[in-house]
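We store chain and fold; thus.
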Amino acid sequence: MGILVKGKPLTWEETKSKADYIREHGIEQFISTYNKMKDKTYEVLKWGDEIEYLLFKFDHKKKRVYLHRKTKEYLEQLAQKKCNFDIPVTFVEEYGSFQIESAPNEPFLDGLEELNNVIRDMRHRRKELTLLMDEESEAVFTITNFPRLGCPDFCWPSAKPSPNGNVSQSLFYPDECINPHPRFPNLTRNIRLRRGKKVEINVPIYKDKNTPDPFDEFPDVDAAKKRPHIHGCYGLWNGVLLHSSYISGMRYERSSVSLRSAGCCFTHCHGALRRLPNIPWLPQRC
């Protein structure tokens, strides 16, 4: 998610008044940096990775799984505790208040042995995080999407959407599920204000003989919102980040992003959950 610093972000109206200045100086800085670096080469290829975790909470009595809005608490604990392993790692905030992003503190090099190191590093990061959790009721997952995202009571503690609020105004996604770091609510609000309307991600619904036609997901929403779609999809990604040895090589090297399709989410979700102990009520097949 990049560097996050504490501060007060600009509103959209404030940003518009400074847009020309930002564009002009951004181009000047790019040209200046390019001229300084264009002839430099490095003997070693450096690379790294970042993984985004989803935090889950289980209610065994009700047989329910929730997204756990506990990012801030976990990050505070991780910042205070001493690392249990010999590999220093980094944990940072992400957009969701139920997400944590992790990365190695230092880049990997180009030796074959580094392929073993990255696997070990990933295991240690997950272990470092899970040591803070209640084994019976909490877990961390790396899946593309949470199947119940946007449904009633999909998060814990429970929160309701605020269609008339001042951040996302979402029909399905509570503002409490946005990370409270000033960057994220302000980003969401500014995108809506810049567009002049809310963001709509409409996924065509699969129709079978039992699907109502027309499909009316929310009868109390105005007619413009009634369309044969399901609304929204939250993507989670794991990335490999490359630091090119020379600038011209960057034309051929790009960040590699590994995504599992949303359609596979249920398979991976249930498969992963099935391997956890003491959850007998989860389905054994998709």
